Amino acid sequence: MVIARISTNEGIRYAEVKGGRYYLIEGDCFDIKGVSDTPYEGEVKILAPVEPTKIIALGANYKKHAEELKLNVNPTPTIFLKPPTAVIADGDDIVMPRGAIRVDYEAELAIIIGKDCRFVSAEDYAGVILGYTCANDVTERAFQKIDGQWARAKGFDTFCPLGKYIVTDIDPFNLELKAIKNGEVVQQGNTSDMIHGIPRIIEFVSGIMTLKKGDVILTGTPEGIGEIKAGDTIEIEIEKIGSVANKVRNE
Ligand code: MG
Question: Is pLDDT larger for residue 67 or for residue 28?
Fold first, then answer.
């Protein structure tokens, strides 16, 4: 199923997306009680697909990306947090913070957690995942190097484009992902090249903290990261999932 979170004349709703049209869902995406037989006819604005309590992100989870940034690859996953206030939807602007030196895109597959959970074993990973979406782990690269801790570099408002839709019932292990800047492919990879796979990530993260429904896990970026500047359009596209596209502007 392809699920959108949209703003309608009836308020914020979830909808099933079929043939480019929105069929309103009764309940929410975590507990679908029914789907309208007829498409919604009013004006729609696409919203970020979830409102997470936290965004957990993997660092250095693709070998060649770790090499390009000279990051250590640890036997355990390296994780960091992005604040929920960083989330924006497809079509919203990425805002270059005042004083930024170099801001980069990072194309990533995002996991959407479907139920509250803790201590999930790797083999049970699928039961706690609602679906997947596209993410851009926008990063102020200079601050990342200066600070050591990544909260500032990764945490600015608008630094987590998510969407456009949640796609359920897909196999996430062999998906092409790309970043497209101003219409040109600038980063390309495949989820099969992750160092720590999704089952291991779910086991590891849920062993540390309770995952709430709607929480998001960013699974890391492949090699080929690069800079964005005001005026650019950056789109993250993942096979079988779609894309999230955003313009960049100055604060
Ligand atoms: Mg990243």
Answer: 28
